[in-house]
From TrEMBL:
GO terms for biological process: cell septum assembly. The keyword Electron transport does not apply. Residues 31-81 are annotated as: Disordered. SUPFAM superfamilies: Cell-division protein ZipA, C-terminal domain. This is ZipA, C-terminal FtsZ-binding domain. Keywords: Membrane, Transmembrane, Transmembrane helix. SMART domains: ZipA_C. It comes from the Bacteria. Residues 35-46 have a biased composition (Basic and acidic residues). The chain crosses the membrane at residues 6-25.
């Protein structure tokens, strides 16, 4: 073999080795990162510094009461027994003719109920005789909505002297019906108000009550004003975590997020960071592509982008949710070799996040002044 042939063979071998090495490196680079197996002590390696959060609590809904949760924290009870609070509440009275009069609703800060005149159009339903809870339950409409707006009926318990959704085995001195004035679908419409009147009237006919409905034009005007306020002060922040190099598998994402306290949400590919307070909405949401999470082999599914979001009106200000979002984003980017971006994929500098934090403080102040503090029951209903 000549020197030229030997040289060409060596060069060809070197080129082939380089190609094989590059292909192996490129394959490894583009293979989604997988979740690491746990060691005997349950650890998976070095963990981010944020402490894990408690398990996700169920959120209260407009349609019914929430099952009681453990109360190690300062969660208000649904049925306060404070004598001062009870003394401030108005109770029905019986006049000389035994006719019962519905009380005027207490101020929002004194009431821990479903209905509230601040965001509901309310009707008084007067009865002459006590109505059993079983009869009231049987008379309730099959749906708890009027169009797209939540609808509810409450009874004034003759024993506890408190407003509550009708309960079996109880007796009620009066009732009130209400429909929400606005939510994220828009303001209460005339058609929805008419449906509310029809549902309330049917209930009255069943329990022999006399309704006193509010003026429709007035309530529609209130609904539009409330909807305008809500639209101007609704903030739903969403950021993108983007992989710098190697993609992530859904299992790897869940493992890294679990170290920061995230737990699986009700939808595949969705994780939530629970609140420290029972009954409150999750602090943060972390989502990847649902198709990747539902694939037959999730370890081979490549995820390059994650959505990290905060529904501002749903989370109490005291939880410092935006500060937690920044901490979580930093920890995840460091652990997963990612970068925090806006929804268009542009990296976000610290100055941009500082400006958002300042704007949120002003938003919190406005909501507080309107008695719709972020995370409160009323705010969660209005911004839903």
């Amino acid at each position: 073999m000549s020197t030229l042939q030997l040289s060409l063979a060596i060069i060809g071998g070197i080129v082939l080795a380089v190609i094989v090495a590059y292909n192996a490196w490129n394959t490894h680079r583009n293979t989604p990162r997988r979740a690491l197996p746990e060691s005997r002590d349950g650890r998976e390696g070095q963990e981010p510094s944020l402490p894990p959060e408690p398990a996700l609590r169920q959120e209260p809904s407009f349609d019914g009461a929430v099952a009681p949760a453990p109360m190690p924290l300062n969660e208000p009870s649904l049925a306060p027994a404070d004598p001062d609070v009870l003394a401030q509440q108005h109770v029905p009275t019986v006049d000389a003719h035994d006719a019962l009069h519905i009380p005027t609703p207490a101020p929002a800060h004194e009431r821990r109920l479903q209905l509230d005149p601040l965001i509901d159009a309310m009707a008084s339903l007067l009865v002459e005789n006590l109505v059993s809870g079983d009869a009231a339950l049987a008379a309730l409409p099959p749906t708890r909505r009027a169009g797209s707006k939540p609808f509810a009926i409450e009874g004034f318990n003759a024993t506890t002297k408190l407003w509550e959704p009708p309960q079996p085995g109880q007796r009620y001195m009066a009732f009130q019906a209400g429909v929400q004035l606005a939510n994220r679908t828009g303001a209460l419409s005339q058609i929805e108000f008419s449906e509310f009147v029809g549902k309330a009237q049917a209930f009255c006919d069943a329990v022999n009550a006399a309704p006193e409905f509010p003026n429709m034009p007035h309530e529609i005007a209130r609904a539009r004003e409330l909807d305008q306020f809500a639209g101007e002060h609704d903030a739903q922040l969403s950021f993108m975590l983007r992989a710098r190099q190697a993609a992530w598998s859904p299992g790897y994402v869940q493992q890294c997020a679990a170290r920061l306290g995230f737990v699986p949400g009700p939808i595949a590919g969705r994780l939530v960071l629970p609140s420290s307070t029972p009954g409150q909405a999750p602090l943060l949401h972390l989502a990847c592509d649902q198709h990747a999470a539902l694939s037959e082999d999730p370890d081979q599914s490549a995820v390059r982008d994650l959505a990290l979001s905060l529904d501002v009106p749903q989370v109490p200000r005291g939880e410092q949710p935006f500060a937690r979002l920044r901490e979580v984003a930093t920890a995840l980017c460091q652990a997963m070799d990612g970068v925090l971006c806006d929804q268009d994929g542009n990296p976000l500098p610290a100055m941009a996040m500082d400006a958002i934090a300042a704007d949120l403080e002003q938003l919190y102040d406005v909501l507080d002044q309107r008695e719709l503090s972020a995370g409160s029951a009323l705010a969660r209903r209005l911004f839903s």
